[in-house]
Amino acid sequence: MEKEFLQELIAFMQQKGFVWGPEPEIYGGMAGFYSYGPLGKLLKNNVEYIIRKTFQKNGFFEVEFPTIAPKKVWEASGHLSGFTDPMVECKKCKSSFKVEQLIEELFPNKNVKDFESFFKKHEVKCPNCKSLLPKDVSNHNLMMKTFVGIGGEAYCRPETATTTYLQFLRCYDFFRKKLPFGVFQIGPAYRNEISPRQHLLRTREFTQAEGQLFIFDHQKKDYKPFETVKNEKIPFWSWSLRKDDKTVKKISLGEALKNKWLKNKAYAYFLYLTYKTFLELGFPDDRIRLNQHSPDDKAFYADDAWDIEVKLNSFGWTELCGVHDRTDYDLKQHAKFSGKSMDVLDEESGKKKTPHILEFAYGPSRITFALLDIFYNKKSEQEGKTILSLPPRMAPIKISVFPLLRKPELIKLANKVYDDLSSSWLCKYDETASIGKRYLRSAEEGIPFAITIDFDSLEDKSVTVRNRDTEKQKRVKISELKEKLFVLLKQ
Ligand SMILES: [Zn+2]
């Protein structure tokens, strides 16, 4: 069922110009590289817009740093030694496999924690040629290696975060030497996955939107904005809970701090903010949960880590964002390797200290996939109808404008309405095919409102506004159209 749905969804994304690939398609494609077609790019832009707005509302500034950095940076960050996946190669057919993926696929009901030792204890056959796989597991580094100039060893960034930390001192000056402050980057990152197979959820090139809050340790514990949200509830699904209770619990942030599910107020505040962003992105509340990383699967740099997971129709619960307390690990490492001190004055104690970092790592590529997965609705085969029921604020194109028939007087008025609305929203004008077909096309593309200009419009200066989801139609005066749509499109 899920597999069938996934195939159908991918076909829909390709046909309607959302996602193409794997690229380059005409050369057979490389796994893990995808393109955004016209509608996909618009949808992803909307995702990034919501994330950007959330950061900016909280005083974060956007920056853009190079995506390639020399080897030394990745030695310092820990990625060169620690950012690896255990892999195994079939001696017979030479295929490579990620050990974790093999075990999850071959033993789906076993809850394996240590993949490497599990692999060594069990006989595992190559999925391609069925011969027995060897026991020697090697570590595959996930970074993409490149060269700068002649022989200068460098790597494409596997996360935007590290490249942000390199400019901590400049940012510190920009914020007039006052902590806490935040900056964020939205841009590409690269991971040389062994065999990516989950469409946009696991790719080798992808977009990240990562915010970094630089904050002193004592400020984390005593973070004033927390008071404004302490009674807000969020859906926790902690690893410490999971042992005896598999349900999601909505409890307040204040309670979560008391229970020690969360470690400090600043972290709690930003975890809430991230959860809220997912509601704003359009995800239904009952499909969201917060999952804490167990001590075993926490990234090498994280002191505390929670994922925002969303339940997809295709892949089930899927991580779309991570909130990490990276402590003072990163700045200490870069100070050590670069020889530049990253310690700055803490006015409270009068001493110089290394700031801590809280990180909010969104995956806009994954979020775009998730929105298509959840809001893609195929109605019954007989009806032949597909509706992409994205919330209007997330829809790639907001309004379609149709003259009922191809008559000059209707086309003239329709063009006038289109021009007027286009100055505020992205609209689509369509005069081909029957009106029924145009409504279907418009719904498939996720356009929330369709406006039709008919002969009555010439007399009463009104148009028909059709709601994509309810299919209800309303007459609206052209002079009041913008005002009405402004409210409708905020939903
Ligand atoms: Zn093989």
What this model shows, in words?
- The protein has about 500 residues and is α+β, with helices and mostly antiparallel strands.
- The protein folds into three domains: about 35-65 and about 160-375, Bira Bifunctional Protein, Domain 2 (BirA Bifunctional Protein, domain 2, 2-Layer Sandwich); about 85-135, no CATH class; about 385-490, Anticodon-binding domain (Rossmann fold, 3-Layer(aba) Sandwich).
- A nine-stranded mixed beta sheet has the order 3-10-11-19-16-15-14-12-13. The chain has a five-stranded mixed beta sheet with strand order 23-22-24-25-26, with helices on both faces. The protein has a three-stranded antiparallel beta sheet with strand order 4-9-8.
- A hairpin with a 7-residue loop joins strand 20 and strand 21.
- Helix 2 crosses helix 14 and helix 3 (about 70-75) packs across helix 13.
- The chain is globular, with a radius of gyration of 26 Å.
- The two termini are about 30 Å apart.
- The relative contact order is 0.11.
- It binds zinc ion.
- Zinc ion (ZN) binds near residues 90, 93 and 129.
Main attributes of the structure:
491 residues, Rossmann fold, 9-stranded mixed β-sheet, 5-stranded mixed β-sheet, 18 helices, binds zinc ion
What is the count of distinct domains? 3
Helix content: 25-40%
Q: Give the neighbour order of strands across the main sheet.
A: 3-10-11-19-16-15-14-12-13
Bulk shape = globular
CATH topology of the largest domain: BirA Bifunctional Protein, domain 2
- For the report, how would you describe the main beta sheet? 9 strands, mixed
Tally the helices: what do you get?
18
> How large is the share of residues in beta strands?
25-35%
Task: List cofactors, ions and other ligands.
Answer: zinc ion
Round the Cα radius of gyration to an integer and report it. Answer: 26 Å
Kindly report the average pLDDT value: 93
Class inferred from helices and paired strands: alpha+beta
Report the end-to-end length measured between terminal Cα atoms. Answer: 32 Å
CATH class of the largest domain: Alpha Beta
Q: How would you name the CATH homologous superfamily of the largest domain?
A: Bira Bifunctional Protein, Domain 2
Named CATH architecture of the largest domain: 2-Layer Sandwich
